């Protein structure tokens, strides 16, 4: 990926593998990797789009996303490619103050 000018973090690599690993082996074949790269790029989103996405995850509208809310949305959207441990690690990394909840600013800092 570095040869392609991309420098993903370890978490991003785990998410990529989780999404692209179609056979569930835990590793990517060249074919899986090529198909993943052939997908349209994930571009930057506007602040309004990110706030809207935050609201989707904040199911009870209290201004915070809990791990349970994140799990509920992942299940509702049928995002089966994301392993629960990867979701928990992502949640933990975005939850900067480690209070078990993600507020809007943490969400924005985590995705921008």
TrEMBL record:
Region forming the signal peptide: none
UniProt keyword annotation of Repeat present: yes
A molecular function (GO) term: calcium ion binding
Cellular component annotations (GO), alphabetically ordered: myosin II complex
Xref: Gene3D superfamilies: EF-hand (1.10.238.10)
Residue ranges of every copy of the EF-hand domain listed in the record: 8-43, 45-80, 82-112
Top-level taxon of origin: Eukaryota
Keywords for this protein: Calcium, Repeat
Pfam families from the UniProt entry: EF-hand_1, EF-hand_7
Protein name according to UniProt: EF-hand domain-containing protein
Organism: Plectus sambesii
Phylogenetic classification of the source organism: Eukaryota, Metazoa, Ecdysozoa, Nematoda, Chromadorea
């Amino acid at each position: 990926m570095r040869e392609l000018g991309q420098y993903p973090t370890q978490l991003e690599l785990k998410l990529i593998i989780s999404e692209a690993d179609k056979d569930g082996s835990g590793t990517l074949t060249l074919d899986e990797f090529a198909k993943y790269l052939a997908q349209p790029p994930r571009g930057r989103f506007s602040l309004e789009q990110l706030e809207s996405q935050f609201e989707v995850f904040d199911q009870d509208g209290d201004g915070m996303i809990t791990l349970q809310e994140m799990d509920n949305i992942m299940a509702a959207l049928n995002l089966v490619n994301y392993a629960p441990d990867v979701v928990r690690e992502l949640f933990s990394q975005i939850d900067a103050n480690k209070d078990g909840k993600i507020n809007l600013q943490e969400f924005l800092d985590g995705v921008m």
